[in-house]
Amino acid sequence: MSFKFEPSDSSDASDQFAGTVKENCCKEIAAIPAKEIYAVRELYESLIGKKTKQYTVGNGKVLLSISSADVELEVRHAAAAAGKATAVAEALSAETDLLPHVYEGGLKVWECSFDLTEYISTLGMKFEGQRVLELGCGSGLPGLYALTEDAQTVHFQDYNEEVIQRLTIPNVLLNADERKLGSCRFFSGDWESLRNLLLPSVVGASDARYDVILTSETIYSPSSYKKLHDIMASLLKPDGVVYLAAKTCYFGVGGGTREFEDYVRMEGMFDLHVVKEFSDGVLREILRLSLKSSAS
């Protein structure tokens, strides 16, 4: 069954990975440090009057999301009112989907996010009682699905704090009651920094690690492979599983599933299998990773 969404939104990804990537070649830019972002009650009021979209997954479940186009407009207006552009506003003004180490495309609902949500919904995965982490979440559709399927806890991470505040948390509020909101945590910043932030809580405490890690459209840049690999290896339970959705090749950017697969096999910590292939439009895949017994 196909992933259906309506109505259309100009900020949602088409069948191509956008080629608007600005390289910050003239200066070294430090990665954004990780920190926890808290959902405040005022966010409920911010939902009033906002346009929402409905996403229907293969098992019939409907997920709601704030319109990405409206969020982009909100970001532009907030920057104009403040007289200072945020990282996200800077990227929108430059009409780019990616500014490496500045903005990582979190406001766009990328195609592989649909693929991953569709896949886990039709797979019949049991999320009840599971600890779930979504890396590079943006709108958070895969994590939202796990949350509505009674996951014990779902943690969401995106590189940009503004994406978490203006899109991810509002989407959780649209799809979950306060009890479920209380089982969520939200983080922004770089994966290496997030790993260092969370690692002390999981050392010697396997129960604090994650049963499932979900991530989509996060391997377009080979320079990020080590950070992504290491955070997954450090935070996944010994018997946990990673589902990663991505394009086979990101034209003009350099990454893709084969390159990431080669990197994972070189590191030797994970077993990796291609569990789903998509041939409509740009070639896409879903990878399943699990820790080797010697690495867990």
Defining key terms:
296 residues; alpha/beta; three-stranded antiparallel β-sheet; single chain; disordered N terminus; eight-stranded mixed β-sheet
Care to describe what's here?
By secondary structure, the chain is an alpha/beta fold. Helix content is about 35%, strand content about 25%. The chain is built from ten helices and eleven strands. An eight-stranded mixed beta sheet has the order 2-7-6-5-8-9-11-10, sandwiched between helices. A three-stranded antiparallel beta sheet has the order 1-3-4. A hairpin with a 5-residue loop joins β3 and β4. α4 packs parallel to α5. The longest helix is centred in the first third of the chain and has 15 residues. The protein is globular. The two termini are about 35 Å apart. The N terminus is likely disordered.
Per-chain topology:
Elements: E1 4-6, E2 35-37, H1 42-46, E3 52-56, E4 62-66, H2 68-82, H3 87-93, H4 111-123, E5 131-135, H5 141-148, E6 153-158, H6 161-175, H7 178-181, E7 184-188, H8 191-202, E8 210-216, H9 225-235, E9 236-247, H10 257-267, E10 270-278, E11 284-291
Parallel strand pairs: 5-6, 5-8, 6-7, 8-9
Antiparallel strand pairs: 1-3, 2-7, 3-4, 9-11, 10-11
Helix pairs in contact: 2-3, 4-5, 8-9
